[in-house]
Design goal:
The chain is an all-alpha fold. 86% of the residues lie in helices and 0% in strands. The relative contact order is 0.07.
C-alpha cells in the first residue's frame, strides 16, 4: 500500500526534473543567443511546471521567456509573458515581483507606453526603497539604481529633463556606494 502511494510522487519528481532540465537548457541557449531554441524549450518547461502546479517556477520561466522574446524583438509577446507572471504575484516574493515590474516597465518604455512604464517603474522603485531601508543589501541597491535609471531614461525621452536628473543623480550616488 505504501508503495502504491509513493508512485505518483516518483512520477511527479520525474516530471519536475524534466521541467528543471528543460529550463536549464533553455536558459543556457538564451545566454548563447540562440533565442528560438531558448523559447521553444522554455515553453516546454512552462507547460510542465503548469501541469505540476509549481507557480514559483512558472514565474521564473515566464520571466525568462519575456527576456528572450524581447531579445528576439517580439516585444508584445514579451509583454504577454510579463503580464502572465504578474498574475501569479501572490506566489512571488515582494522583491521578486518588483524585479518583474521593473523589467516590464522598461519594456513598456521601449513600446512607447510611457505613462504605464512610469507607473510600473514607480511601483518597483517603492518596493526596492523599502527593501533597501530594511536590509541594505548590494543587490537591492543595484535594482534601486536600475529602476531610477530606467525612470530617468523615460522621463528624458518625453522631455522631462529635470525629472530625469532627479532620478539619475540618486542612481549615480547608489552606484558609487555599491562600488565601495
Amino acid at each position: 500500500r505504501a508503495y502504491c502511494a509513493s508512485i505518483p510522487v516518483v512520477e511527479l519528481g520525474d516530471r519536475r526534473l524534466e521541467a528543471d532540465l528543460l529550463y536549464g537548457v533553455a536558459f543556457i541557449n538564451g545566454q548563447l543567443e540562440n533565442q528560438p531554441r531558448a523559447l521553444e524549450l522554455g515553453r516546454q518547461a512552462l507547460d510542465l511546471y503548469r501541469s505540476l502546479g509549481l507557480r514559483r517556477e512558472e514565474i521564473r520561466v515566464l520571466q525568462m521567456l519575456a527576456v528572450r522574446s524581447s531579445a528576439s524583438a517580439e516585444l508584445f509577446k514579451a509583454l504577454d509573458y510579463y503580464d502572465q507572471a504578474e498574475a501569479l504575484a501572490e506566489f512571488n516574493s515582494p522583491t521578486g515581483a518588483a524585479v518583474l515590474t521593473l523589467h516590464k516597465g522598461a519594456l513598456l518604455g521601449r513600446l512607447g507606453e510611457f505613462e504605464r512604464a512610469l507607473q510600473s517603474l514607480a511601483q518597483a522603485l517603492e518596493v526596492f526603497r523599502a527593501a533597501v531601508a530594511k536590509y541594505r543589501e548590494p543587490n537591492l541597491l543595484l535594482f534601486q539604481a536600475v529602476a531610477l535609471a530606467a525612470t530617468a531614461r523615460i522621463q528624458q525621452s518625453v522631455g522631462n529633463h529635470s525629472e530625469a536628473l532627479d532620478h539619475l543623480l540618486p542612481a549615480l550616488e547608489i552606484a558609487r556606494e555599491i562600488k565601495h
